[in-house]
Amino acid sequence: MVAVIDVGASSLRMQIAEIRYDGSIRKLESFSQALSLGKDSFSTGVIARDTIENCVHVLSIYRAKLDEYEITDPDNIRVIATSGVNEASNRLAFLDRIYVATGFEINSFDEAELHRITYRGIQPYIKSAPKYFKGETLAVEVGGGTTEALWLSNGNVAFARAYRLGALRMRQRLELYDAPLAKARELMERQIRDTIVLLKDSVPDTMDSLIAMGGDIRFAASEIKQSTIGNELVDIKLKALERFVNEVLESSPEHIVMRHHMSLPDAQLLGPGLLTVATFARAWGIDKITVANVNLRDGMISEMAKGRMWNPSIGEQILRGATQLGRKYHFNEAHSIHVAKLTSMLFDQLQPLHGMSGRFRGLLQVAAILHQVGSFISNKGSHKHSMYIIENSEFFGIGSEDKRIVALVARYHRRAMPSSRHIGYSSLSRDLRVAVSKMSSILRLAIALNASNTQRIDSIKCKMLPHEIQLVTEDMSDLSLERMELRQAGRLFESIFGKPVVLTSTSI
Q1: Would the pTM count as exceeding 0.85?
Q2: CA 91, CA 83: separation in Å to the nearest integer?
Q3: Which of 183, 224, 373, 398 has its CA 20 to 30 A from that of 332?
């Protein structure tokens, strides 16, 4: 059994689930407690002491519940936080207090990781109901602090971004202005439209469908449909949603609490959240909204069940994003994709020697695809430019730490050896520094094998002999260029693993 706790801007939620031997998931129990961390951090930039202690109290209750389920292994528990915690200036003090009081280590998700987890939550629907994802789809989730938008083209991620537009942020701004009802709606719509303008700079002006996620839209769908929303996708008409939005915005939070039997904090955020979804649908000319019963906790549990990043479907999306970034900088696509293919072969066959996990295999592929993008700036020092571009770019699915690893591996694809004097490398843990060196050494071998830039070496077999590593390719009469490049490129590999690398052919 596993558990995911979401320390959100407006609530603390926990999902407990069972992961079966076949990888399927059975949800067991869910918990939710309103707690406005974002109310502090969005207004003052600091999480108040009382709020911290209230959070400790709720998480202590959750810890006791996990003990009842005998979920005690830290590997089976994920505690994640987003904008409500990440934007607080006393974030580290908050994290330390929670750890001391409850033993929970909170992981602060950055935007790229959030997109990966959200997409993983959507994936079952892409497979089970592909008609909803034909053409161009906009997937939207409105949270307390941010609105996440994913543009899916035939089910593949084409763009992902989180915007500082959330139900709690909008509610706080209204309280600040103390605006009358009509003015309040106008202020919210203005914020939403401003975000739509930004988003339309990166996605098509029209969409074939809109998939909405989150508790507010699920609640609205259940009220409109007069039935509980299960695990199937549910369609609601935009006009029906707009009528419901009007009803909510014209009612006081206290009236909403009485009528719909929800907590006051949820009632206060219901209107802004639903107005955002309705305005998005109207802006993209969509008259029917598809509601998915998906949340961050579902995606996280799926990742725990099926692997952190590099299961085939997620890995495919990440590599697709890396390729799109490479095209932006006019990289040599044929060379880079082929080098990535060779690095995967080398990584797999040399695994007993290097001992790295599948996570690093994927990151190495991304580095191989992007290692030459720095040439867009200048051929002189292009390896450093590649590092700069990667570190300062956004692409799907890779968090800040993994992006730094990719950038460093790309930086070391040439002659320079990794050094403690290099910015970025020295700040990594020893294990990650070693991983970067190992990955860079494999990347150099793959680049040398395509020294002719003709992709003529299409496959390679590795023989790990006592005193050397043999790379065996198919019968080729002249490998002099590749052997010359390999003598230089193999020095880093030999310095790490203690064995030289030689290239041979089946004809020898």
Answers
A1: no
A2: 11
A3: 398
